[in-house]
């Protein structure tokens, strides 16, 4: 009786050990293959892209190109262009997001709300990182 239970027991563990190994392999695959792609596509993090889609994309477009109705009406520039990035410092971008703007460029009225009271400073930083990530 004792001898037979000793023999059978190890076989009970085999499926458990196999499924444990499979789950470890799955986690490693997910970490190694999926995570870096998401990280590089998401400068500014999930929060930054969520904020941008909610508060900025209606004018600037989800990809920052400004290809929207408002973007065309107000001649909003393409934020994927290297020239745009070299022309704007982080400090300038932060000031514009916080204070908004209301100006005229080549006869076109350009208006953007101030987000100072709507966004926390770290959220503004996340948006700046996201915008920098638009650069091609
Ligand atoms: C109502 C439309 C509108 C919305 C919404 C909007 N913007 Fe703008 N934004 C503009 C316009 C118009 C300009 C001026 C275009 C230009 O730079 O010539 C502008 C300019 C900018 C600039 C460049 C500022 C500069 O100093 O030249 C940044 C950076 C920017 N927006 C970020 C954001 C972010 C981040 C959000 C969301 C939190 C946002 N915008 C929401 C309309 C909008």
Order of helices and strands: HHHHHHEEH
Q: What distance separates the N and C termini?
A: 72 Å
CATH architecture of the largest domain: Orthogonal Bundle
What integer value in Å does the Rg equal?
26 Å
What does this structure look like?
This protein starts with a helix and ends with a helix. Helix content is 65%, strand content 7%. The protein has helices at 2-41, 45-55, 57-60, 69-73, 82-87, 90-99, 121-133; strands at residues 101-105, 108-112. With 136 residues, the chain is mainly α. It folds into 2 domains: 1-41; 45-133, Orthogonal Bundle (Cytochrome Bc1 Complex, Chain D, domain 2), CATH 1.10.760.10. Heme C binds at residues 55-56, 58-60, 70, 74, 76-77, 88, 92-93, 96-97, 101, 105, 110-112, 115, 127, 131.
Structural descriptors:
65% helix; mainly alpha; binds heme C
Would you summarize the structure shown here?
The chain is mainly α and 136 residues long. It is built from 7 helices and 2 strands, in the order H-H-H-H-H-H-E-E-H. The structure holds heme C.
Secondary structure topology:
Layout: H1 2-41, H2 45-55, H3 57-60, H4 69-73, H5 82-87, H6 90-99, E1 101-105, E2 108-112, H7 121-133
Antiparallel strand pairs: 1-2
Heme C binds at residues 55-56, 58-60, 70, 74, 76-77, 88, 92-93, 96-97, 101, 105, 110-112, 115, 127, 131.
